[in-house]
Specification:
This protein is mainly alpha-helical. It has eight helices and no strands. The chain folds into two domains: about 70 residues, no CATH class; about 50 residues, no CATH class. Helices cover about 65% and strands about 0% of the residues. Helix 2 packs antiparallel against helix 3 and helix 6 packs across helix 8.
């Protein structure tokens, strides 16, 4: 058996994207933007996983802050499977709220739609309680 620390792995150059993904939990924060670029350039399909790993590492950061950390516009997040499932769940809860309380006014709907993605999570959480 051979042990390899993630710190040592992170020091290797030319890692494939999946191996580089393993280093995100231990990389210095300043190195994360370059590391994620090396991961996502050849494998943009790993965006959702990168954001999830960094979300676990930095639980105090919102998804928008994580996207800013890795220099990815937050609108890219809306195209991930996770975001689409999450938005569908929010729409279902919105319909449930409309059945219980009646439809929201156009002004309220516009204010909710204008919220940043990170604040929508709070609305979804509130609706589920």
């Amino acid at each position: 058996m051979h042990w390899l620390s993630l710190d040592e792995l992170g020091q290797r150059h030319g890692l494939d994207p999946l191996s580089s993904l393993l280093t995100l939990p231990v990389l210095p924060k300043l190195e994360i933007p370059n590391a994620t670029e090396r991961i996502l350039q050849p494998r943009p399909d790993l965006l959702e996983i990168v954001v999830t790993v960094l979300g676990e590492r930095f639980p105090h950061l919102t998804r928008e802050e994580i996207m800013a950390l890795i220099n990815i516009p937050t609108d890219h997040l809306r195209h991930t499977r996770f975001a689409q499932e999450w938005m569908a769940e929010g729409e279902a809860r919105g319909r449930q709220l409309s059945r219980r309380c009646g439809p929201l006014s156009e002004a309220s709907t516009a204010r909710i739609q204008a919220l940043p993605l990170s604040q929508h999570a709070g609305w979804t959480q509130t609706l589920s309680n």
